[in-house]
Specification:
Strand content of chain B: 15-25%
Helix content of chain A: 25-40%
Largest sheet of chain B: 6 strands, antiparallel
CATH topology of the domain at 26-119 in chain A: OB fold (Dihydrolipoamide Acetyltransferase, E2P)
Distance between the termini of chain B: 53 Å
Order of helices and strands of chain A: HEHEEEEEEH
Number of strands of chain B: 24
CATH superfamily of the domain at 26-119 in chain A: Nucleic acid-binding proteins
Structural class of chain A: alpha+beta
Helix content of chain B: 40-55%
Oligomer: heterodimer
Largest sheet of chain A: 5 strands, mixed, barrel
Number of domains of chain B: 4
Strand content of chain A: 25-35%
Radius of gyration of chain A: 22 Å
Largest interface: A-B, 58 and 76 residues
Chain lengths: 138, 852
């Protein structure tokens, strides 16, 4: 066997080992219930803002504390604490992808990705809505 | 047929006609080039070639005309067209017109076809005997890209989305029952504010030129197999590969510069799937470029060259599939297209067309991938290979190892990026890890070490065989200098990245050593071996640039410093500090600045002075004044103003753009992370009147005010007065309960218009003070209002990025090095060389080191 072949095999083996070691790194997408089942474990939680509950954020007191309630598609609810600034479009978001860990009282969130309707121009419903708004104003 | 009022249908109908013409011409060109490539008879071959060239030229012209019509409907705001309605608006500045054309999927596919067309025309002129097979591949790709913008129904299936689709056909709304519906649509949706940026005008064309040019090595590899001249294609394609590597590399880093300078990602690279999707083909292209150079010099690595040339384009297509079909979904901040699943609540018909579009993109990927790999493996044995092994003291051996490392790195990155695809196929729900960036960086730092060492050492090896003495003698000085530099660096400017433990910190040090070693070794190589002939030094220049960029990346990310730590103004929660680091392990990086109150931030005192409106409607700048004083003398050492802005869109969503103070050795980077929407508040508090004499006191809820002097016609007022105007200024001292002292100087002015009052505000106390008038007994009436409005403030994040300019400088040097190699290996006339070199240099320098 050639030296290059040996190195190639070693490289490929390293690649596979490298990728496999990440399988432990990866996390999961969870619902509120399943996230509660594995408290303290890092998960992705997909939910939406519960608009019936207050969003607590006072940038003067503490710009790094935001709390609100989120409901998932199955209807379970959890309090969320995000130690960062409030994303501007939180109230307008349709869906929130949150990364973090569930604790006994709340979901301790480390990052928030908002899915806002306005960003997606290809979203039929949204275009329809903006068209209706615009044309009914006249 | 119903006739709607005010519609301009001609540009759309003509545009659609030219799309169809281009599609048919591309198909004819494909078939004719293909026929020509197989015909043995010269006359027959020339006839096919003639037809094919005419067809391709017609195709090119049509594509340009289509672009012209899109530009027309967008620049004239013809909202009867969906594309204009979706992407432009009345207030859109003219300079963003191009940006709004490539915001949409249709426009960016069109951009791609334009670059293919232009490259195709050059290849028809230049590629000589390779023209027929090479152009049959490019014409076929054109056919597919044009399908994406066709927008024609075949049965129930809509093939592609036309940029000339009419709004009334696309959006179901009752308004379209009216013949005069157009009089109601006065404005379009407009360009996403995130994209209103000069980078959005320039980045997509460059990146797409990079994408488009990767088809050339692919097409040449095919041509090598098709003509059975398995080895001859490498020489003519190499300059193209170098051009592609240069442009794609520059295009990718332009995206990084854009993200860094204008978006609030807080960096230039985040291992986002969309970023990875363009990096992976570049890595493969670089791998292929090196194996081709090996082949030309020694005859080794031809088979690998085939594989990498094909894979580069295959992964361009795969990237297109990943980023255009919305399959990345939740994992990418760039994903502007939703997945099929997520739009399932929308209308059935539309849903179908989305899915059809995804199927089309997928088939573009498959149709090019499967046959090309099949051809390669079928002919694998016929591709010449040297069976004698490379020496381990030869340059080609280690160059090949380098290519292999790039290839494996590309596979690693794409495997991780493809997790959403894997989830979809297997029905699993694997989510990204907790710290996405670190999960890449811990591997990439090892790659940086290997590549740094390889590029430092291999440069001094000769092809075939290198004498031990020669090599060791040449390596003495670069090694010694690097060690000296590393010692200086670790003493005077150590890395402080403890977040992931000492092991990772050690890896950063080793990577920095390897990268600096490579920079020094390659620069010295130009003088000691190449005797300073810079025009022949493409390779060492490019390697020095690449590794200099790595040095910049290591320093700017490892020593990036958050200076907007909330701790500084005493309103943060106590958080755990890692005893080993000066960094907090739970960085709470936002800081609220109350208007007019200086706040300490690292060595700076920062004051939010005021906000002001921008040119565009809804844009607001926050003026932040930074000041650094010499601690001994109290003199101001440094002062500057940063103007981060917040853009409020029509739908009230906000977008925030950073502002950066650049120094040679560091950038101070800040953006607004939270701001109040002022329109939503109303101030209902009233002024309460106090009659005061000199020295009198008036109370408010949080302290008291003392009236000092009243000055007639005071000088140095903030407002300008006519000489005959009379002004009175009251000086009030304010003491709050927490014993803070403030001053307020309200004014009353008598001018030709009558009496005016200029109030003063103490933002820190939420206090408005008004000079209401003077009584007959000389007493002063002072109005005090305590606003129930929230305090005016802005919440910001601020970072210091040290040595970020090394990243840009490294990229520029690398790009120039690749250009030099391209000029050396291609056949150019001297004036062409001069234009490419001077033009390219000026352009890249301007882009990365001057603009923005």
């Amino acid at each position: 066997m050639k030296k290059t072949h040996i190195i190639m095999l070693v490289g490929i083996a390293a690649l596979i080992v490298g990728l496999l070691s990440y399988s432990t790194d990866f996390s999961t997408y969870d619902t509120v219930v399943s996230a509660k089942a594995k408290q303290g474990k890092f998960v992705h939680l997909i939910a939406r803002l519960d608009k019936s509950q207050p969003v607590e954020y006072d940038a003067i007191k503490n710009p790094n504390y935001l709390s609100f309630y989120a409901v998932d598609s199955l209807g379970s609810q959890t309090k969320v604490v995000f130690r960062n600034s409030k994303p501007a479009d939180l109230e307008k978001s349709e869906r929130i992808v949150m990364k973090g860990k569930m604790t006994a009282d709340y979901f301790d969130c480390s990052s928030i990705l908002l899915k806002c309707p306005s960003k997606y121009k290809d979203d039929e419903k949204e275009l329809q809505k903006s068209m209706q708004q615009q044309t009914s104003m006249n | 047929m119903i006739k709607f009022e005010g519609e301009h249908l001609l540009p759309g109908q003509t545009g659609n006609f030219f799309i169809i013409l281009a599609l048919v011409a591309a198909l004819i060109a494909t078939l004719s080039f293909f026929k020509a490539s197989y015909s043995k008879d010269t006359i027959e071959k020339n006839n096919w070639l003639k037809t094919a060239r005419i067809a391709f030229t017609i195709q090119t012209a049509s594509v340009l005309i289509v672009f012209g019509f899109i530009f027309y409907i967008c620049s004239h705001h013809l909202y009867e067209y969906m594309y204009a309605y979706k992407h432009t608006s009345n207030e859109l500045e003219y300079k963003y017109l191009l940006a709004c054309i490539w915001e949409g999927q249709e426009g960016s596919f069109l951009l791609w076809t334009i670059w293919h067309s232009i490259l195709g025309i050059i290849l028809i002129k230049k590629s000589k005997e390779w023209e027929a097979p090479v152009m049959s591949v490019i014409s076929f790709a054109q056919f597919f890209l044009l399908l994406m913008i066709l927008g024609v129904y075949i049965g129930n299936i809509k093939i592609g989305n036309s940029p000339f689709a009419l709004t009334r056909n696309e959006i179901p709304a009752p308004i379209f029952n009216r013949l005069d519906y157009l009089t109601f649509i006065k404005d379009g949706v407009g360009l996403n504010v995130l994209l209103r940026n000069y980078w959005m005008v320039i980045h997509p064309p460059i990146l797409f030129l990079g994408f488009a040019s990767t088809i050339i090595p692919f097409a040449y590899a095919y041509a090598g197999i098709q003509t059975k001249r398995y080895a001859d294609w490498v020489k003519p394609v190499l300059p193209w590969v170098l051009m592609s590597a240069c442009i794609l590399g520059v295009g990718i880093m332009m995206g990084g510069k854009w993200a860094y300078g204008s978006l609030n990602f807080g960096g230039y690279w985040a291992w986002d799937p969309v970023e990875n999707a363009s990096l992976v083909p570049w890595l493969l292209l670089i791998a292929g470029m090196h194996t081709m150079v090996i082949y030309k010099a020694t005859g080794h690595s031809l088979r690998a060259s085939y594989l990498f040339a094909i894979l580069t384009f295959v992964f361009i297509l795969y990237s297109t599939f990943l980023t255009r079909t919305g399959i990345l979904g939740d994992t990418s901040v760039h994903a502007f297209t939703e997945t099929g699943e997520d739009i399932s609540f929308s209308l059935l018909g539309k849903l179908f067309s989305f899915k059809a579009m995804n199927a089309l993109i997928f088939s573009y990927f498959i149709v090019f991938t499967v046959p090309s790999l099949f051809l390669l493996f079928k002919n694998y044995k016929k591709i010449p290979a040297i069976h004698k092994e490379e020496n381990t003291n030869s340059r080609e051996f280690w160059m090949f190892i380098g290519s292999l490392v790039f290839f494996l790195t590309a596979m690693f990155i794409i495997a991780k990026t493809s997790v959403p695809v894997y989830n979809k196929i297997m029905g699993t729900k694997i989510a990204p890890p907790e710290d996405v960036e670190f999960s890449y960086n811990k591997i990439i730092v090892l790659v940086a070490i290997i590549i740094g060492l390889l590029t430092a050492l291999t440069q001094y090896l000769k092809y075939k065989d290198t004498s031990r003495n020669y090599f060791l003698k040449k390596m003495v000085w670069p090694t010694a200098i690097t060690i000296a530099v590393m010692i200086l660096l670790s003493v005077f400017y150590p890395f402080t990245f403890y977040k992931h433990g000492l092991g990772f910190l050690g890896a950063i040090y080793v990577a920095a050593f390897a990268a600096i070693y490579s920079v020094i070794a390659n620069l010295m190589y130009i003088w000691t071996v190449q005797k300073g002939k810079i025009l022949h030094a493409g390779s060492p220049v490019a390697h020095a640039g690449f590794t200099l960029m790595i040095v910049g990346m290591l320093i700017s990310s490892a020593n990036k410093e958050v200076i907007s730590n909330s701790g500084v103004n005493g309103i943060a929660l106590p958080v755990g500090k890692d005893p080993m680091t000066k960094q907090q392990d739970d960085p709470r990086e936002n800081l609220s600045l109350i208007r007019q109150i200086p706040t300490a931030m690292a060595n700076y005192k920062v004051t939010y002075i005021k906000d002001s409106a921008g040119n565009e409607k809804g844009k607001k700048f926050y003026e932040l004044y930074f000041e650094k004083k010499d601690s001994a003398s109290g003199k101001i050492k440094e002062q500057f103003t940063l103007l981060p802005d917040v853009y409020q869109m029509k739908d009230n969503s906000m977008s925030s753009n950073p502002s950066t103070r650049s120094y040679l050795t560091k950038d101070i980077f800040t953006y607004v992370s939270y701001a109040l929407n002022k329109n939503e508040e109303k101030d209902t508090a009233r002024f309460k009147e106090h009659v005061m004499a000199h020295g009198d006191t008036a109370f408010y809820s949080n302290g008291y005010l003392v009236l000092g002097d009243v000055i007639k016609n005071a000088k140095n007022l903030k407002i300008k007065l006519e000489p005959k105007d009379i002004s009175l200024m009251a000086e009030l001292g304010i003491v709050s309960k927490d014993t803070m002292h403030y001053k307020a100087t309200p004014l009353i002015i008598v001018d030709s218009l009558g009496i005016r009052q200029i109030d003063d505000t103490v933002y820190a106390q939420n206090l408005y003070v008004r000079f209401m008038g003077v009584n007959a007994d000389q007493k002063i009436r002072i109005g005090i209002k305590e606003s129930d409005k929230l305090i005016d403030f802005v919440t910001i994040k601020a970072y210091v990025f040290p040595m970020i300019n090394l990243v840009w400088l490294g990229l520029v040097v690398m790009a120039l090095g690749i250009l030099l190699s391209m000029l050396k290996r291609g056949t150019f006339k001297n004036w062409q060389k001069a234009i490419i070199l001077i033009g390219g240099t000026l352009f890249i320098f301007y882009m990365f080191l001057i603009a923005g």
